[in-house]
Structure formats: structure tokens, C-alpha cells
Amino acid sequence: MRSRFRELGFSIGRVPTGPGNAITDVPGVRVGHATLIHGEGPLLVGQGPVRTGVTAILPGDAVYSNRVLAGSFVLNGAGEVSGLTQVDEWGLLETPILLTSTMSVGKVSDAAVQWMTRQNPGIGQEDEAIIPVVGECDDSWLSDAVGRHVRSEHVYGAIEQAQASDGPVAEGSVGAGTGLVTCDFKAGIGTSSRRVALRSHDQQLDYNLGVLVQSNFGLMRSLCIAGVPVGEILAPDFSDEAKRVRNAGSIVCVIATDAPLLPSQISRLCKRAALGIGRVGSFAAHASGEIVIGFSTANKVPRATAGLTHRIEVLLDDACDGLYEAVVECTEEAIVNALCMAESMRGHSDHFAPALPLDALADILKHHHAAEVHRLGLGRT
Question: Exposure pattern of 236-250 as b/e (b: 16+ CB <10 Å)?
């Protein structure tokens, strides 16, 4: 039985979580998955085994007609989020964010175009063409990635599941996280949220911030959880397990907030998410892509308007520190949740990704906490 990190009795950071501790705590944001798991045995390109999928993040209803402000940050660019150059140029997001396997980006983008043009028949005619936002991680350690098994119906299914979803976000080996590995343990999709309270002498503001990760980076020896070098401690127990060597992984991190931020402020928020990735153990390896995209649902920019101006609300830069602290904590916890929720998985050619052992993790963290209490002299009467 797998559990989220807080269900083990631990926490990360000091900022309180939202009610679901998920990116969907930001009102209007929805997440859906399509998961593909079939086949066993040796790799037969085009046939399997298959361990892949699609994850859809919807920023709200009718995002093409009512665009949201957005930004990004690329820590290391050995990866891809298609459509990101336009997001950065315009500071706007006008499509769902879709995540998938590296070599399925084109197929997912094509399906997203089909889905959006059915919803908005004016695209490419009286309205501009679209460039869907599609991120990727390489799942070729476990899946027949070259076979590109994701089909249009899987993309539609993920989007439609997101539209219908009002419950918890599935984590671990689901959707675009199905075949992914983090620090040599099975991982995938993870999420977390924070409720950020901003105060001044005459004003009180409360905002939601959530993160969803497609996590696939790192080495076991680098894994750090809540400041504890868990990977180094566990590594001897997994010394006989074969591990991926050529595939350095990657991570795509999606941030959502209802704080009223400008695109430049959202990009600054995305930079801080990289600190959370680093806390878990990423050193942004040469062939590992660390890419962050974020959006704010607070202001909508309508595509169709009779006027030449549009009024928006903006949080002042001096008030953003609470959001910066929250996004670091949130990103770290989202990655840890991906590890905690993923089951062990065997892929093609007998490649194996073990699940992070939760009992051992809990023992390590409890021992570390007890040692710190003793070292600091806390608890003495």
C-alpha cells in the first residue's frame, strides 16, 4: 500500500497545504490522465512492452477564449516543452498543458490541435493558429518509446478526464509518469499545494499555489528527502539492481496560482521551483532537462474584445516572497509524493524500477529527527 509523504507522518516546509495538497487546490485547475501499460519481456519496437501515457492540466474553462498569464524558466534545456517560446513571447497560455513521452510529443501536439479546433472552429481561419504546450520526459528505460504508442484517443481521454474531474489527482505511475524513474526509484506524477497568506499593516491576502511534476531525474546517491540523505543510506540495499546509465532523465514542473502575477513575476516564480528540484537531488545533469512552466488564473485576457485596453490586477513585487518560499516547498513535496505513490515496475528487457521503500524511509527520517533532537538538546526537562 503506497502513501503520500504526509500520510507517513512527515511534512516539508512551514507553509500550510491546501485542502487537497494538489495543484487542483487552485480553483478552476483540473488534471486528467491516460495510462498505457501492456506487454512483458524483451523490447520489440512498435509492439512493446508499453509503460507510458498522457497527462493533461487544464488552467480553467475555455482557455483559448480566455487566456491566462504565464511564464517559464529553463534550468537545463536537454528536454522540450513545445509551445514555450510563444508562451514566453506573449506572456499568455491559450491551450491545455499536456505531458507525455519524449518521442510522442508530435503525436500529442497533433491530437491537441484536433481537439482544440473541434472546440474552437475559428482557429486557423478568422483566429490565429495555435501551438499546443506539450512537455516530455524520456520513459525509454521501461517502455518502448520508439514505438510511440500514444494515440489521439489517449490525448482526448486525458483532457476529458480532466474536464470531468473534481477529486484528488492520481499520482505515481499514471499518465505521463507511467514509465518514469527518479533517483533510480520508480516515480512519475506528483503534486502538492500551499495556502499562502500575505499580510501588510492594512491588508490581508490569501492565495493558492500548486505544483504538478513529471519527475524522471537523478541518481540514487543524490536523493535527499526533507534534508536527509536518504539515497546514500538506501543505496547499499539496491547495489545489485541494474540502473539506467545513458538516460539522465528530466523533470517538467507545472505551477499554478490564483495570485495576480505578471508574466515576468510568474517566470521569477518558476526560477524558484528549480530550488525545490535541487533540494531533492538534481544537479541538472548534462542530458537532463529541468523545465518549469507556470500560470496565474487570477486575470483572464479575452481573445475577442471590442476595446484596445484590458485592465488587470497585479500583486506588487515586494509581496511575492511568500509565494517564492511556497513554490520551493511545494515543488520538493510534489517530487517526493511522486516517489512515495509509485509502485515498483518491471519494463522491457527485464529493466526494473524499485519503489522507494516507505517503511525504511520512515525509519530513516525518524532516526534523523531523533538524532537532531539529541544533538540540539531539545526535549530536556
Answer: eeeeeeebbeebbbb
